[in-house]
Design brief:
Blueprint lengths: L9 E8 L10 E10 L19 E8 L6 H12 L4 E4 L6 H11 L6 H4 L10 E3 L1 H8 L8 H7 L15 H11 L5 H26 L13 H13 L3 H14 L3 H17 L3 H14 L6 H13 L3 H17 L7 H18 L2
Parallel strand pairs: 1-4, 4-5
Antiparallel strand pairs: 1-2, 2-3
Helix pairs in contact: 5-7, 8-9, 8-10, 9-10, 10-11, 11-12, 12-13, 13-14
Length: 357
């Protein structure tokens, strides 16, 4: 896929461990690493550098230590697998996988060559994309959970076979294997690790498409109203206001709930207001109050401010303020708006004084 072209030099990494945290007794007994590669039979026959050939396959290597005595061998294999990669891609690896691998390097420092200790992609400043962060930014409004397993089902539409094993069982399965030597259950752990890595590739593709500024809305996958709203907020944080405004527009077209529409109108109008685009902001406020059911005084208040301070039209400012007061006084839970009603009454009195000759 075109969206994965930027990941051709990346290492998709996932670990299976003996427990949580980074204590001395916690090992990464399996490190899965997926990379895009050109297979040997596709290499140039003229002897040119095979790394210049466009990758055609995704290859998953799983480094497994049969017991803790093989940890140095595992580290050496991981070093070799990461040596030519320029980007690390994980899912929650910033909080878990990578700190654990760094801890294991420090623990084994006396027995490792300097090159292994300075493994480039495990350094603090190494390029690292933790997919959990953009996944939460894009989908957490719509989904109850952004765990990888849940994203597989709801976003990737992938369901694992019965060969899978819940992550919380993996440490015990490995402990049983080390004690007994019986390896049948470890096949499920290999499957679990491999599926995690392959799912990360699909997830990276989906996120790249969603956040790709060059793509039209219809090319950005099956984004829903809540997703567009989240995307707009993400673009605002990146100070990309044109993309944020476009995303809010798509959110308004696809939003299913009044609350989402109201927030989209609120964020869009605030963006226009900050840019001094007052006429557009006023149009947005009017669309908000006429198209979203329920009572929300914000668009009325903003229109009153606009008329008073930008247009110097006190008559219109009084009208919008009075309208807001009328709407709030009609709702059954008017007491919940008591503070806002007090502020509006004060505003109305002030505008009326200003109108007096």
């Amino acid at each position: 896929m075109e969206a994965l072209a930027d990941y051709h030099g990346a290492a998709f990494l996932d670990t299976e461990t003996t427990g949580l945290g980074t204590g001395a007794g916690v090992y990464a007994f399996m490190v899965g690493i997926g990379t895009f590669e050109a297979l040997p039979d596709e290499e140039s026959s003229d002897g040119s550098d095979s790394r210049l050939i466009a990758p055609s396959h995704f290859v998953v290597r799983q480094v497994f230590m049969r017991n803790p005595a093989e940890e140095l061998a595992l580290i050496s294999e991981v070093f070799s697998a990461l040596a030519n990669c320029r980007l690390l891609v994980t899912f929650n690896g910033r909080s878990f996988d990578i700190p654990l691998l760094r801890a294991r390097l420090r623990y084994n420092r006396p027995y490792l060559p300097e090159t292994h200790l300075n493994m480039a992609l495990l350094q603090e400043d190494a390029p690292h994309l933790d997919l959990l962060l953009p996944a939460r930014r894009l989908w957490r409004r719509r989904l109850q959970s952004c765990r990888l397993a849940h994203l597989e089902e709801t976003i990737l539409f992938h369901k694992r076979t019965e060969s899978d094993v819940p992550g919380y069982l993996i440490p015990q399965l490995y402990a049983d294997y080390v004690r007994s030597g019986e390896s049948s259950e470890m096949e499920r752990v290999f499957y679990h690790n491999r599926e995690d890595i392959v799912s990360m590739v699909s997830l990276a593709s989906q996120l790249t498409v969603a956040f790709d500024q060059r793509r039209a809305a219809e090319q950005r996958g099956d984004l829903q109203g809540k997703d567009w709203l989240s995307l707009g907020i993400a673009y605002e944080r990146m100070q990309d206001m044109p993309q944020a405004e476009e995303a809010y527009g798509h959110s308004l077209e696809t939003a299913e709930s009044a609350a989402d529409k109201a927030e989209s109108y609120s964020r869009l109008s605030s963006l226009q207001k900050r840019q001094g685009r007052w006429e557009e902001a006023a149009e947005t406020w009017q669309l908000w109050l006429t198209s979203v059911p329920g009572v929300n005084p914000i668009p009325y208040i903003e229109l009153a401010k606009y008329c008073e301070w930008q247009l110097q039209d006190l008559e219109q400012a009084e009208m919008w303020t009075s309208w807001a007061l009328h709407e709030l006084r009609q709702v059954e839970s008017a007491f919940a708006w008591a503070h806002t009603i007090d502020e509006l009454e004060h505003r109305l009195q002030r505008i009326r004084r200003k109108r007096q000759p």
